[in-house]
UniProtKB/TrEMBL annotation:
It comes from Naumannella halotolerans. The chain crosses the membrane at residues 21-38, 44-64. This is DUF3099 family protein. Residues 71-112 are annotated as: Disordered. It comes from the Bacteria. InterPro entries: DUF3099.
């Protein structure tokens, strides 16, 4: 259930992008190593990936998530219990409740 429409924090977004970049660079290193282990056509595929992956990784690492979250879930009524406003009780003078007077006096911001 969505509670807020707030995006991830900038630090969390940066950490996710850094992790994604490091994974792609790890794949690139594997491609470099596989150039010496695979034959023929696959060697060209590994060279191609090793050349193209850095550009893709940089583009994805610099891409900030600008998507908006779905706010419809926030507006839908739910079946979960909700707090109600409750009953407002007036002060009972006999009980010793609120001793403030309801009419303003001079010096309290009211007119005499």
């Amino acid at each position: 259930m969505v509670v807020t429409t707030a995006p991830k924090s900038p630090a969390a977004q940066r950490k996710q992008r850094e992790r994604q970049y490091m994974i792609m660079m790890g794949i690139r290193m594997v491609c470099f190593l596989l150039i010496f282990a695979v034959p023929g056509f696959w060697k060209l595929v590994m060279i191609g990936l090793a050349v193209v992956l850095p550009g893709i990784a940089v583009i994805l690492a610099n891409a900030v998530d600008r998507r908006r979250q779905n706010t419809a879930a926030l507006r839908e009524p739910s079946d979960s219990p909700e707090l109600t406003s409750g009953v407002v009780l007036e002060a009972d003078e006999d009980y010793g409740g609120d001793h403030r007077q309801s009419t303003p006096h001079q010096g309290q911001g009211g007119t005499p």
